[in-house]
TrEMBL record:
The keyword Transmembrane applies. It comes from Gilliamella apicola. It is a multi-pass membrane protein. It comes from the Bacteria. SUPFAM superfamilies: MetI-like. GO terms for biological process: amino acid transport. Keywords: Amino-acid transport, Cell membrane, Membrane, Transmembrane, Transmembrane helix, Transport. This is ABC transmembrane type-1 domain-containing protein. GO terms for cellular component: ATP-binding cassette (ABC) transporter complex. The chain crosses the membrane at residues 12-42, 54-75, 95-119. Belongs to the binding-protein-dependent transport system permease family. HisMQ subfamily. The keyword Cell cycle does not apply. It is found in: Cell inner membrane.
């Protein structure tokens, strides 16, 4: 049994799966961090509609399990796509550019990336929000009294305020 599992073709399948896992993890970390940062900026907005949309987004993606979300993205969104687009997407899509052909990732990779990015960005946005909320009101007022902007006051640490720059 073990000898059959270690045949070269299965080892290559495992290696390919490992590389796909690394790729989807890498892209998910980068894009969920960017999206989480944008979400927390939108959540700090004074416009109640934008704040409500972000709070709804966070509630949906943080409080529902990952596996049903991935099923929704794969089966739900996949069925909403136009038939021609689905045929192109499932047929190893390629985009012809000027001097070369760009091979697109598979439908499963794209859907996994979208699902994991949406799920992770909600948690990362909450971590960014907690970091911003961790700066006390007195600390914010002290930084404004020193002439720092709001962005500069979130960048400086409390120990740096007494030092000359």
């Amino acid at each position: 049994m073990l000898e059959q599992l270690l045949e070269p073709r299965y080892l290559w399948w495992l290696w390919d799966g490992f590389l796909v896992t690394l790729a989807i993890s890498f892209f998910t970390i980068i894009f969920s961090t960017i999206l989480g940062f944008l979400l927390v900026i939108a959540q700090q907005s004074r416009i109640k509609l934008i704040k409500g949309i972000v709070l709804g987004y966070n509630a949906i993606f943080r409080y529902s399990p990952l596996l049903p979300q991935l099923f929704f993205w794969y089966f739900g969104i996949g069925n909403l796509l136009p038939t021609e687009f689905k045929m192109w997407l499932f047929d190893e899509p390629q985009i012809q550019l000027w001097f070369f052909t760009l091979k697109m990732p598979s439908f499963e990779f794209i859907i996994g990336f979208i699902g994991l990015t949406c799920y992770s960005s909600a948690f990362i946005a909450e971590e960014f929000r907690a970091g911003i909320a961790g700066v006390s009101v007195g600390q914010q007022q002290a930084s404004l009294a020193l002439g720092l902007t709001w962005w500069q006051s979130t960048d400086e640490s409390p120990n740096d305020f007494g030092k000359n720059h």
